Amino acid sequence: MPEPFEPRIVAFFCNWCTYLAADLAGTSRLRYAPNARVIRVMCSGRIDPQFVLDAFARGADGVLIGGCHPGDCHYQEGNYKCLRRFQLLKRLASQMGIEDDRLRLEWISASEGERVRTVMNDMVEKIRALGPLGRRKEVEEEAVVA
Amino acid sequence: MKPKVAFYWCASCGGCEEAVIDLAEKVLDVVAAVDIVFWPVALDFKTKDVEAMADGSIVATFLNGAIRNSEQEEMAHLLRRKTQVLLAFGACAQLGGIPGLGNLWNRDTIFNEVYRDSPALVNPDGVFPVTEHRDNGHTLRLPKFFDTVLTLDQVVDVDYYLPGCPPTPNIIEQAIGALLSGKLPPKGSVLAPDVALCEECSRRDTKPEKLALEAFHRPSEVLIDESKCILAQGVPCLGAATRSGCGAQCVEGNMPCTGCFGPTSRVRDAGAKSLSAIASMAASNDEAEIERILAGIPDPAGMFYRYSLPASRLRRKRQEAV
Amino acid sequence: MSKHIVIDPVTRLEGHGRIEIFLDDAGQVERAVFQVPELRGFEKFAQGRPAEDMPQITSRICGVCPMAHHMAATKALDDLYKVDPPPAAKKIRELAYTTFMAEDHALHFYFLGGPDFIVGPRAPAAERNVLGVIARVGEETGRKVIAVRKRLRAVMATIAGKAIHPVFGLPGGVAKRVTLEQQEEFKAAAEEAVEFAKFTLGAFEKIVLGNAEYVDLIRSEVFTHRTYYMGMVDESNRVNFYDGQLRVAGPDGAEWAKFETGRYLDYIGEHVEPWTHVKFCYLKAVGWNGFEEGAASGVYSVAPLARLNVAAGMATPAAEAAREQFFSTLGPGPVHHTLANHWARVIELLYAAERMRELAADADITDPHVRNLPTATPREGIGVVEAPRGTLFHHYQTDEKGLIQKANLIVATQNNGARISMSVEKAAKGLITGGEVPEGLLNMVEMAFRAYDPCFGCATHAQGAAPITIRIHRRAHQVKAS
Ligand code: SF4
Ligand code: SF4
Ligand code: SF4
Ligand code: FES
User: Fold this and answer.
1) pLDDT tens by residue, C118-135
2) Domains of chain B (ranges plus CATH)?
């Protein structure tokens, strides 16, 4: 019997908002799917699209980016920068065969622990329906077929 | 005895070969300094001549073109064995090059396009080329065509890289000079300046420190002002994320840089880096407005990975989604 | 005990290919097959790309004739957007194009095909190359060839941004104007090109036509095929590389068809064989009847010899005089001798240089108005030029944003594919007897296709290329020959 598929999600969370929200969710015992590996960044504006592609290449089935609400970024412009890059990156990802639901951007403030839970559960569910991305295997095996 | 040198091409357009011929009178100096033992485009030496050489007896091999089929893969291995210093010559060998755009598809979709869906085709019996064909008692073979285009260093160990589509004569000359004098940088280096193209661009002074663009234009839609930074005019120019060394040729031709020299050493994924820089310039904080501005870039994969898809982190479009 | 001779790769041509020759027990050639093992898929990966990127993307089909692909693609963009370039732009394009034709034909004569004659068909392999040519013609002449070529490449780079993979073609014109200063250099370069072309024609006449053995070789049945021919002509039926209508002549030389380039699909079909990646073009109305010559077979040929065969003349004086001499020597016409391609190529070199001289001197080329912006909604565009190696078709369909939905490319060498196969088989059968295959003889088999200056880089644009191999299989015996 094949093992049931557990989506692997890499979450890049801004230190000043979503990361704290995730923390809050934890301390408030809000249960959510344990599929994400959270990476803390100083600001969503610091997330280089290279990191995102790297996560997919190394086997992530989905990538979630969490930043401060518009107007609330600690560094003023960071989340807007993130939004601009995200839009283009999303189109690139779709050209590379990565479905929309696998790459997601959410604005979540420090107090919205509940929202972390909803978003995460929703994403896990959607990716579960999509199935594994299978990137790592493809890349490692060079995908060479005669 | 003069050092032995070889030139070879895999999935190549031949432009890299022409680039060597474009050394013009300096080709004669090269010929005087080295012994060219294999160069199919110009000389009549055959593969068997290479096979007969002792391993490591070729001092340097300049290999251009990507790897797309089994025959090219075998040639890459053969030449690697016979050669001390293997140079990936040009964008195709280094990054996959324009043929690397084939990684948005796979073998079947390409074959179907060519042998099933092509408009002038008359193929009622659905004949496709096959790797082994029996014909009146004779067997005819074709190499295996891969689903995925590979860079040279995904197949064999590479010592140095010459960037460009094709590399420019000055870059080639310097590489040959470095080889002959033995003054080679650390293994794995790209033999070109490690700074961005904007540094050597004649329009550099007209490029603002910080760019905020209200629209992106395709070069077909606007008249480009010959005196100003092309990117500042809203036409995506990849100079900021591309390695210098070509003399900003395309910009001199009044067209944007499309990135053929690949990234500088600090960049892992050339396309993602360029995408990031260009997208950040959209002058808005509003989601819908950003979308409108970025619609001026209709084909991000083709623009940012024009020469480097096989070398990118993702390497290819997901097979299942092709 | 078996005999197995492998020559790999076939050399002095662009791209990869392979020839398989099967001998019967008596050592006679039973079958010779010309294979192209590569394929790259340009039609497929064009899909989704913006149409205006096609001139730069498709030039990577071939770095030897990137200007031809760039120009066919650019003309297809004019058609796609229904935009007519201003006079200056048309002339600048044609100037760049004729400069390229002159340079490329010269390259073939001195580097690729010429060594077979100048150094000799059966000369030692190590000398049969451009260095051997230089040794024969003298270092001074050798340096002159190199210098002229360099100057022509510089003209191309000035106009086109890059000589290898130009960037100047846009719908409705070109990216950059020509300055008065540049024009002076173009004029001087063109003058030198004309002198050089005349020198080359003189050298050809002396070395090749002055040698009875070579003339016999050109005329020999082994290198002769009576097929259809196709090429582009102007309104007076003279050879034109950049623009015009397509004219087809039958094996008897009479005009068989003349049509607008946009109607190519009515005339040309492509046939697939399972043992090669190249598709074979043929005339649809005649039909595919196998690798056969004659009026009942749709096989046709393109490139210099074909262009001369379909045209009523050359549009410049010295080239026209040379053309007349060509037909009075080998004619009356059509000339069916494959090796006559070399002569025809040098005549075209002269035409290209003379045409370059006319355009370089034209006052229009320095007009700053070099582009009309497209306004129409794109849908479909076809662009056709005569590449050095023959007729080249680019055909695109796009969505309303100008993103490519379908691309069809028929390249020069593909048009010639069937006839090249026939030439190789005929040469192999005619030259190899009794299983004796010295290296020089195999080179003469290679000469059968080198005359076409085939480009397998181009021919395999659709997929990939491998080195040309000549393999001689002998049924019972296999020996590794040298
Ligand atoms: S790098 Fe460019 S010039 Fe060189 S083989 Fe590739 S496409 Fe041709
Ligand atoms: S962006 Fe382009 S035009 Fe502007 S300075 Fe850089 S290379 Fe030059
Ligand atoms: S300007 Fe850019 S695309 Fe053009 S040759 Fe230089 S590096 Fe390559
Ligand atoms: S600090 Fe949170 S997104 Fe910038």
Assistant:
1) 888 888 877 888 888 888
2) 4-98+147-181 (3.40.50.700), 197-311 (no CATH)
